[in-house]
């Protein structure tokens, strides 16, 4: 029996209420997102001068994985810096097991956990809006996990 392949398709729509990393008046971020799964990282375009960036049209990413039951998508949002030292605004760790079955096609908001040096004890404040789909190798939706 051959090795099964699964696809994780995600669509990035927007982020909301990102934190400003400096104390300057009317500070904004130049935000971009990275998505890491199975050792592979993919990066969105940068949306300049906004604490509520919207990717329009939405940006789509695809990953191929051999198994999904114990895999996690790591989503991170960064503020692009002119000096090349980009700063982490927030991150989310998303279990792929959430996307088996009926939840497969919904757009969801994910709270971004702030880095400890920035946030109030790492409590989430900002949100990222994604649609994540978990597909079998033939393109059909992965059904519920059965134990």
Automatic annotation (TrEMBL):
InterPro entries: C2_dom, C2_domain_sf. Coiled coil: none annotated. It holds the Pfam family C2. This is C2 domain-containing protein. Gene3D superfamilies: C2 domain. Residues 1-109 form the C2 domain. Transmembrane segments: none annotated.
């Amino acid at each position: 029996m051959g090795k099964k392949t699964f696809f994780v398709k995600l669509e990035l729509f927007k982020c909301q209420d990102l934190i400003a990393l400096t104390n300057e008046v009317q500070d904004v971020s130049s935000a971009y997102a990275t998505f890491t799964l199975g050792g592979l990282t993919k990066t969105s375009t940068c949306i300049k001068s906004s604490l509520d960036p919207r990717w329009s049209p939405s940006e789509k990413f695809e990953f191929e994985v051999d198994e999904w039951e114990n895999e996690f998508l790591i989503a991170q949002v960064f503020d692009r810096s002119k000096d090349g030292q980009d700063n982490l605004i927030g991150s989310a760790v998303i279990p792929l097991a959430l996307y088996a079955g009926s939840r497969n096609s919904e757009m969801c908001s994910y709270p971004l956990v702030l880095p400890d040096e920035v946030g109030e004890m790492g409590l989430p404040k900002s949100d990222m809006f994604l649609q994540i789909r978990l597909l079998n190798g033939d393109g059909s939706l992965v059904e519920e996990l059965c134990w």
